[in-house]
Amino acid sequence: MAITTSLDGKTAIITGSNSGIGLGIARELARAGADVVLNSFTDNEDDHALAAEIASAHGVTARYIKADMSKGDACRALIEQAGACDILINNAGIQHVAPIPDFPAEKWDAIIAINLSSAFHTTAAALPMMRKAGWGRVINIASAHGLTASPYKSAYIAAKHGVVGLTKTTALETAEEPITANAICPGYVLTPLVESQIPDQMKAHDMDRDTVVREVMLARQPSKDFATVEQMGGTAIFLCTDAAAQITGTTISVDGGWTAL
């Protein structure tokens, strides 16, 4: 049987997708034929314009639905409002950096809620839809920090390790069904947010762009090259193909060798 990458007729919900990795994945899924639902906590003209642009560019249905991913009820309502969910991409996330004794409790709570608990709530709402449809893909965007650790990022690392564990449990609960669950673990990805940080790093370290990227920003990424949002999208598409039907409950690192160290 020929392997196809077409996602025609599938509906994909991507949380945290009005910028960065989430938007990049949404664009690639739409390019492969999936109808897409974009999401973030804002609700402005630019958000809906992104959906309209994707729909026009790829001839699919694209919508934007506001949902605060720090609230479980809102996470579940996002799935219900979408009306269908064949592909769930749990991507929403925030970050805060501080030593554990100084880490604000409210920041811990917010990071755990948005980076981890939201994936539980959306998955709980999406699985009945996938079972009814007879097919489904849960793809959680974890991190290299879901497999290893760094100092001063306690909440983020705890959440991303939790996402990996949730992925494994989801896979085991759906193992005898045509539903898979996997986690993509990116290293540093060149997003607009990361790009905007480079000039400040150049100034702080008195280095040119190439040097600060290689020696500071990508110090732990052996390839010394950023991953791209298109590569994240391509990995997600692969996990949706028949070729990946027996890949479930695992992590795929897109980290330039970071976790090989």
Keywords:
alpha/beta; Rossmann fold; 2 domains; seven-stranded parallel β-sheet; 46% helix; 14% strand
Strand-residue proportion: 5-15%
Q: What is the correct CATH architecture of the largest domain?
A: 3-Layer(aba) Sandwich
CATH domain topology of the largest domain: Rossmann fold
- Quote the average pLDDT: 97
What best-fitting shape do the alpha-carbon axes yield?
Answer: globular
Strand-helix topology:
Elements: E1 11-14, H1 20-31, E2 35-40, H2 45-58, E3 62-66, H3 72-82, E4 87-90, H4 105-133, E5 136-141, H5 154-173, E6 179-186, H6 192-205, H7 209-217, H8 229-240, E7 251-254
Parallel strand pairs: 1-2, 1-4, 2-3, 4-5, 5-6, 6-7
Any overview of this molecule?
- With 261 residues, this protein is an alpha/beta fold.
- It folds into two domains: 11-189 and 227-255, Rossmann fold (3-Layer(aba) Sandwich), CATH 3.40.50; 190-225.
- Helix content is 46%, strand content 14%.
- It is built from eight helices and seven strands.
- It has helices at residues 20-31, 45-58, 72-82, 105-133, 154-173, 192-205, 209-217, 229-240; strands at residues 11-14, 35-40, 62-66, 87-90, 136-141, 179-186, 251-254.
- It has a seven-stranded parallel sheet with strand order 3-2-1-4-5-6-7, sandwiched between helices.
- Helix 3 (72-82) packs parallel to helix 4 (105-133).
